[in-house]
Write a structure and sequence with these properties.
The protein has 568 residues and is mostly beta strands. The chain has a single domain, classed as Porin. 13% of the residues lie in helices and 42% in strands. The strands form 3 sheets. It has an 18-stranded antiparallel beta barrel. Strands 1-9 form a two-stranded antiparallel ribbon. The longest helix is centred in the first third of the chain and has 14 residues. It is globular. It starts with a helix and ends in a 9-residue tail after the last strand.
Amino acid sequence: MSFIFFLGVIFFKSSGQSTFTPMNGDYLHYIERYEIKSGKLSDKFYSNVKPIGRKDLVELSLNLEKDSLSRLSSVDLFNLMYLQNDSWEWLADNSPNGLSEAKAIQNNTRKPFLKYFLQKKSDFYYHHNEDFDIHISPILHFAYGNDNLTNNAPYTNTRGIEIRGMLNKKLGFYSMFTENQIAYPAYVRDYARLYDGFPYEGFTKVMNSDSTRLVADFFSARGYITFNVLKNLTFQFGHDKNFIGSGIRSMILSDFSAPYLHLKAITQVGRFQYINIFAQAINKQVPVAADGTEQRPPKYFTFHHLSANITKNLNIGLFETIVFGQRKIGFDINYLNPVIFYRYVEGNLGSVDNSIVGMDFKYNFLRSFSLYGQLVLDEFNLKHFKQKGWWATKYSTQIGARYIDALGIRNLDLQAEYNLARPYTYSHNSTYSNYVNYNMPLAHPLGSNFKEFLFIARYQPLNRLTFTYNLMLAKHGEDAGAINWGGNIQRNYNLMRPGEYNNFIGQGNTANIQLMDIGASYMLGHNLFIDASFTNRKLQYVNTSQTINNRVLSLGVRWNIGKRQLLF
């Protein structure tokens, strides 16, 4: 606690600090697309570590507009204006001769509501001066649909508020709160029953939880502060999420679980970026007292990620993480060392904590293409690796590619990705050490014991209209009865394991998953969208020939919130 207090004191010496961009599909796509079009990797932010600062994304958009080689379409110019409007407070600091001020004015509305509200297209209310900057906007998401496998139609009812800003241009702050009632599609309900939790969320009350009717009632909240203690050292503290990588999935650290309390330190010097995360997750697998007198026990993880722009187009990153349970004093202070190799600390303590290491890379070229990938080693022994299918040869990999303005068609972007994880990867012999937060995986939604191919096509023919096509083909080895085949990472890998050797991806109750999602979104106003989508998910069990077809049609409207990604 004294360490955190120390950080809370020294921020008063910090310089101007931005909050982070939203973690939604549109923003993630814009970050990757416009970095590719820029022709080089940025030294101001590292897109393999998300979210990134709003200030940095505004600077990228302004530089891209001045780049004659970027071949921007009218739709691109509209998207860049959208990004600038969404973070307009940073425009004046990123362009000379008042040009940015003119851009900020373009975000003004013609007729504010009651004089003080909706003065800007991007903010319901704002106040901006040298000492204090605040932006307040409502969050709304209403959707209704049809599901062939449920008695009650899927729907979404979300209301909330988002607040962000700066104090004295030194302390950035962000807070988001929503109240939700959601009836998920049948396949998501089955997932929630199996893992006792909902994707992306933490504590959830369940209404009408019989076999076909399952409605989730829950609060969502995120909140953090950001500050610089040195020119090249930024801190973030609060409840939030992180995503490592450039893919549709992250095999290293994704945003699929609930927000978690963490302190993140970002050190950036030239071509190098170094990330430290000290996090407290929640172990929901441990039962609490029925009378509610006990709180859910915490678990912890620490994370290092060193990233370097080897050339202007090639980035390589190395990472390590340790997941461990609560000590007598809470967080193990041995893991607070920001520069030591964690595996040494874990071994020196004689602990049985879960140690995971690996790497990632990205290579952008020809202002049109990007290759990326990840390798995660959970456990590796060369002696046993030579023997077929040793259970503890635990690793996962990813390889993917992007092609923007594909086939010469402007604003048609294609992405293909292949992921796999060996059985028992990310699992451990203790619920305090598996790679799980609030019963949801910290990496891939399928956990482990799977192979997966993903394809996404995104086409934006008009400024405000976007079509998407998502395809997922996967083979997942689910656990059969009491036997642990290595698909559910919540389970103890030492219990009910079938054998030491001859383990393979897809073993157990083999499930073939085919999911196709077609969607369209139209932007009525800034961050106000109408969405329509059709999802067809086919689940086929090889051993029993059982087939389940889930077809979901949905129509909705959302304001200041991204779409929930249910691609699993």
